[in-house]
Design a protein that fits this description.
The protein has 205 residues and is α+β, with helices and mostly antiparallel strands. The protein has seven helices and six strands, in the order H-E-H-H-H-E-E-E-H-H-H-E-E. The protein is globular.
């Protein structure tokens, strides 16, 4: 297991960690990171701070959820993939349980019983915190590939080239903000230590 979790991480779907306090931000860090003292007066910086404090919930690291679209998974074979959980140490199980509890709290996942189950593992890389992942390799083998046209980047840049202001929106864990269809929730289900979980949102962008 140790060899598999450290050498095949590119084949697994990563679950990023959530912060314990999702609405806290350091305004001093905002000032320094964006060199605001070189671009704004003290009065303007004060106005900006008041604005950010007033709407601090916008900067939450808890993902929202769109109601405009949902992602579906189409299979080329109806035979269920049911992979038993990998063996893990007590420490690894404790780390996974903590992350699963967070995802349950924010409705990213829900308890379920599906004919499809993929195993969870921890990818451990030197110098980094262990990352909980789902090994979807078996499921990928029977999933129909979907192709989407990629917009021309140069054309996109030209559309805003003369704009005075450009707004950037960075969605917190954007893939989790796209709900899965009911069918896909069961197909993307995972298992760990005897617990079977259905995914409610996309595991990867």
């Amino acid at each position: 297991l140790e060899t598999e979790t450290t050498t095949s991480s590119e084949l697994e779907e990563d679950f990023p960690y959530m912060l314990a306090d999702p609405n806290v931000f350091d305004f001093q860090e905002v000032i320094e990171t964006n060199n605001l003292r070189e671009r704004l007066s003290d009065d303007q910086i004060g106005q900006l701070e008041n604005l950010l404090v007033k709407y601090y919930r916008i900067f939450s690291n808890i993902p929202g959820k769109t109601n405009l679209v949902e992602h579906d998974i189409e299979l080329i074979c109806d035979k269920p993939i049911k992979h038993k959980p990998y063996r893990m140490t007590n420490r690894q199980n404790d780390l996974l349980k903590a992350e699963i509890d967070k995802m349950l709290k924010y409705n990213i996942i829900e308890p379920g019983a599906s004919e499809f189950t993929s195993p969870m593992i921890l990818v451990e890389t030197p110098g980094r915190e262990p990352r909980p992942c789902i090994d979807y390799r078996k499921l990928n083998e029977i999933t129909r590939t979907q192709f989407y046209p990629i917009p021309n980047i140069e054309q996109r840049v030209e559309t805003v080239a003369k704009a005075r202001y450009i707004t950037l929106i960075d969605l917190t864990k954007g893939y989790w903000q796209i709900p899965l269809s009911k069918r896909a929730q069961g197909i993307a289900a995972f298992a760990t230590s005897g617990v079977y979980i259905d995914l409610c949102a996309c595991p990867l962008a």
